[in-house]
Specification:
There is one protein chain. The chain has helices at 9-22, 29-37, 39-50, 61-64, 71-87, 94-113, 144-148, 172-179, 194-201, 246-259, 276-279, 305-314, 357-364; strands at residues 118-120, 123-125, 130-132, 159-164, 185-191, 211-215, 232-238, 260-271, 286-288, 291-293, 299-301, 318-331, 336-348. With 368 residues, it is of the alpha/beta class. It has one domain (9-59, 116-126, 152-351): Rossmann fold. Residues 15-31 have a biased composition (Basic and acidic residues). InterPro entries: Methyltransf_12, METTL2/6/8-like, SAM-dependent_MTases_sf. Its EC number is 2.1.1.-. Residues 162-266 form the Methyltransferase type domain.
């Protein structure tokens, strides 16, 4: 694989022509409505067929999104990665560099987090049971507002993560593996396919002491989350928004933004415009512009980074990162080259303005 490849003008024009060609014949309106109405059905069928064997665990998450981790844990991981770079990694090969980091990182996490008892979220976990280690998991500084709220899963945590569209847990369990020795952390994960949530809950590494998996349709604004607004430190939105009808995406992002606490981060990765997957669609699979129907009834949209910026900006989030990640994948066995395109973004909820902020703004604006 080649990282961050630049396309020539000819390649760009060719991709546009292929996308225009496969978009000329649209799916019939009544069928589009059916696929929208029965979206969860097709994803349930997907997980019933593939179980947890279709996607690989996303151990790359911590390289691309170190913000998933609490700051202290993040620094520990950075130190470990620097050590690995000096001892095990061939820095002349970018793809090899990342793969070796993942492999060495997994060995480190297994050594430090795998097997035996481990302290998580104020509990001791030995794969068969969880019991409190202390009566004061958060300490006395838990905050008056949360103290007044009715108890909810993860209510005593100090650092909370939500993964939207968790699928079979390919992000959930790598995250839990890294957080296993980080007291005070809690992971929520949801999917609107009940079959996917059941796969997560039935996994040998799942335990409600530090993780809560639940069925949820993010498109349903009236459906409450099992926790209050403004308590999440991180929301992970990876290859999920593309499965939602374009007309409903803004509403989903708006609602998710309300769940973040001030300073919280939303981490996004999804399909980019003219990715190989888009160009491979045949005529008759296009639902609307850049929105397609797969053969199994699931759907996928292909973004530009400007579209992503507009959505998150309208939701009141501030850009930290927003880039197009172009890579060249080569299947040497089949002698096939694939030009992959992904959008990777990080957006932050602004911190609350201090009382003297307006005065500072006035001083910097001589026209007022």
């Amino acid at each position: 694989m080649g990282d961050h490849m630049q396309w020539s003008q000819e390649e760009e024009e060719n991709a546009k022509e292929r996308a225009a060609e496969n978009s000329r014949v649209k799916v019939q309106r009544e069928d589009q409505e059916r696929y929208e109405r029965e979206a969860s059905k097709y994803w349930n069928e997907f997980y019933k067929t593939h179980k947890n064997n279709f996607f690989k665990d996303r151990n790359w998450l911590f390289l691309e999104f170190p913000e998933i981790l609490p700051e202290k844990r993040r620094e520990e991981l950075k130190t470990e990665q620097r050590s690995l770079e000096h001892t095990e990694i061939n820095t002349t090969n970018s793809f090899s560099h990342k793969n070796e980091m993942f492999e060495a990182g997994e060995k480190y996490w297994k050594k430090n987090c795998g097997g035996g008892s481990t302290a998580v979220q104020g509990y001791e976990y030995n794969k068969t049971q969880a019991k409190p280690l202390t009566d004061n998991a958060r300490g006395k500084n838990s905050g008056e507002e949360l103290g007044r709220l009715e108890s909810f899963p993860g209510s005593d945590a100090t650092y909370r993560i939500l993964e939207v569209g968790c699928g079979a847990g390919n992000s959930v369990f790598p995250i839990l593996k890294v957080l296993c020795n980080t007291p005070g952390t809690f992971l929520y994960c949801c999917d609107f396919a009940s079959g996917a949530v059941e796969l997560v809950k039935s996994h040998s590494s799942y335990n409600s002491a530090w993780c809560s998996a639940f069925v949820h349709d993010v498109c349903d604004d009236a459906l409450p989350y099992p926790f209050p607004d403004e308590i999440l430190d991180v929301i992970l939105l990876v290859f999920v928004l593309s499965t939602i009808h374009p007309d409903r995406m803004q509403g989903v992002v708006n609602r998710l933004a309300k769940l973040l606490k001030p300073g919280g981060m939303l981490l996004f990765r999804d399909y980019g415009r003219y990715d190989t997957a888009q160009l491979r669609f045949k005529k008759g699979h296009c639902l609307s512009e850049n929105f397609y129907l797969r053969g199994d009834g699931t759907r996928v949209y292909f973004f530009t980074k400007d579209e992503v910026w507009n959505m998150f900006n309208l939701a009141g989030l501030t850009e930290v990162q927003n880039l197009v990640d172009r890579r060249l994948q080569v299947n040497r066995k089949k002698k096939v080259k694939m030009q992959r395109v992904w959008i990777q973004s990080k957006f932050q909820k602004p911190l609350l303005l201090s009382l003297n902020k307006p005065e500072e703004t006035t001083e910097r604006n001589p026209c007022r």
